[in-house]
Design brief:
Layout (H helix, E strand, L loop, with lengths): L1 H26 L33 E5 L5 E2 L5 E9 L4 E10 L9 E4 L4 E6 L7 E3 L10 E6 L10 E10 L8 E10 L10 E11 L7 E7 L12 E7 L17 E2 L12 E2 L2 E5 L2 E2 L1 E5 L3 E5 L6 E9 L2 E2 L3 E5 L5 E2 L1 E2 L2 E2 L1 E2 L23 E7 L4 E2 L8 H5 L5 E2 L4 E4 L2 E2 L1 E7 L7 E6 L7 E9 L2 E2 L5 E4 L1
Parallel strand pairs: 2-11
Antiparallel strand pairs: 1-3, 3-9, 4-8, 4-10, 5-9, 6-7, 6-8, 10-11, 12-13, 13-19, 14-18, 15-16, 16-17, 16-20, 18-19, 20-21, 20-22, 23-27, 24-25, 26-27, 27-33, 28-29, 30-31, 30-34, 32-33, 34-35, 34-36
């Protein structure tokens, strides 16, 4: 008897010694394999509640918010949020895993905690070990990974619902359909595994999607000449790929991601975004006129001279940052083909009729209007994003330093240079063709405070 009594006491002592460890283990996270994956340990109902028949029957739920919907991009992390809700619970827990649907014993990606309420663990196929993990990748000997609550994550005393956030990175290649398994325990907080604990489960099926193409800038150039050189308020062209989310553009068929601005875009002033496409120059929003997947035209904001960073943002993210040098002057003529856009007094174009129907060369001694951008400060000043008529009314905003212009190497007389009253950043420059200019196509060059326009632009003289 004495031996039996001692044996019974020893067994009782062993059991009592184990209870605190078991309680602590449950509070700090469940054992591996309790998410409901087939052929694993089951769910939280293995210890809590009234068994499997009571799962999802107590008026609560467990859900997972998926930022990409029911899809994943191979290798691209997404932040998942688990919500556990229950009308009576006062303490909470969960466990989630991701498996390849074609073989649920194959892990699908890894988890990383983003706060102290969750933790990752790795285990083997026998579920006999639970190794803490913070890297998001399990060793080959313990290939199965779970994310679950921590002790602080149980949030004793919280009622109604709780959330758990963490990052999941899918496999780096298309793994086919992936199933997320999640189980949650909405407990009554009495530290007992009894019927007052309510267990909820859910599964989500995810399909691989193509990675969204990020915008990429290849060049930032003068919007008139497509050469280097920008300034505050000048027109700027950004070249690249995936600059909008449109696949391609058809000429003459405006559509989202392939269009110029319209009157409806000016509800809140000159638009700094078209179809969720925006441009930052020197940390300031540019004014967006035209967008396409390969080219964007903007008016630069009021930036200081010096190096500035340029980025494009659309629905797929923000592009690489390209650094360009902004100057006080960046003169350039708008062009049609190789010819500077210039107009006679009747508004017709200056160019050979053989190149542009209806156009004609300029006569020596004739005063014509050249059209360009980047000719420097004006007086009175005009802020970017406004026309001069909006900024200063009927007065003209003259170039503070009128450009010196040569045609075929001969200096032309600059009659005047000012911003067009009804257009953003567009200079109109009245010049008289010098009598010494040679007939035919001649190079035309503007010099503004030592900055010159490209030398390969032509002007036609009769």
């Amino acid at each position: 008897m004495e031996r039996k009594t001692k044996l019974a006491l020893a067994k009782t002592a062993t059991l009592l010694a184990a209870i605190p460890a078991l309680v602590y283990a449950n509070a700090s996270g469940p054992d591996p394999g309790l998410t409901g994956v087939p052929n694993e340990a089951g769910t939280c109902a293995a210890c809590h509640g009234s068994g499997t028949s009571s799962i999802n029957t107590k008026g609560g739920s467990v859900t997972v918010a998926l930022p990409n919907g029911n899809s994943y991009v191979p290798g691209q992390a997404q932040h998942l949020v688990v919500t556990v809700a229950d009308p009576t619970a006062k303490r909470w827990g969960f466990q989630l895993t991701a498996r390849v649907a074609a073989g649920t014993s194959t892990q699908a990606g890894g988890f990383k905690s983003t706060d102290s309420n969750t933790q990752g663990i790795c285990s083997n196929s026998q579920l006999r070990t639970a190794q803490p993990n913070t890297s998001g990748t399990c060793a080959a000997s313990v290939p199965l990974m779970y994310v679950e609550h921590t002790t602080s994550g149980t949030r004793l005393g919280t009622t109604g619902s709780v959330t758990y956030g963490f990052d999941w990175t899918p496999p780096s290649t298309d793994a086919g359909k992936i199933t997320l398994y999640v189980a949650a325990n909405a407990a009554n907080g009495n530290n007992q595994d009894d019927t007052g604990d309510h267990v909820y489960t859910a599964t989500y099926s995810l399909t691989a999607a193509t990675a969204a193409a990020q915008p990429t800038i290849s060049a930032v150039v003068n919007g008139a000449t497509f050469a280097a050189g920008i300034e505050a308020g000048s027109w700027v062209t950004i070249q690249g790929k995936n600059l909008t989310t449109a696949a391609s553009c058809d000429a003459g068929s405006p559509r989202p991601g392939c269009r110029t601005w319209s009157s409806s875009d000016f509800t809140n002033g000159t638009p700094t975004s078209l179809d969720n496409v925006s441009v930052s120059i020197g940390g300031k929003a540019a004014f967006v006129y035209y967008i396409s997947p390969t080219q964007i035209n903007v008016q630069a904001p009021d930036i200081n001279a010096g190096d500035v960073a340029v980025t494009v943002t659309n629905g797929n993210g923000t592009s690489n940052s390209v650094t360009v040098t902004a100057a006080d002057f960046a003169p350039g003529f708008f062009q049609t083909g190789r010819y500077a856009i210039a107009t006679h007094q009747d508004g017709s174009l200056v160019a050979p009729a053989s190149v542009i129907p209806g156009a004609s060369p300029a006569a020596r001694g004739e005063t014509v209007i050249l059209w360009g951008t980047g000719f420097g400060p004006v007086s009175p000043s005009v802020v970017a994003g406004q026309t001069s008529s909006q900024a200063i009314g009927s007065a003209l905003a003259y170039a503070s330093a009128p450009p010196n212009i040569t045609i075929g190497g001969v200096t032309a007389t600059t009659v005047g240079a000012a911003l067009n009253p009804s257009a953003l950043g567009l200079y109109q420059i009245a010049v008289t063709v010098p009598n010494g200019a040679q007939s035919g196509d001649q190079p035309i060059i503007a010099n503004s405070a030592g900055k010159t326009s490209p030398a390969n632009v032509l002007f036609s003289v009769r």
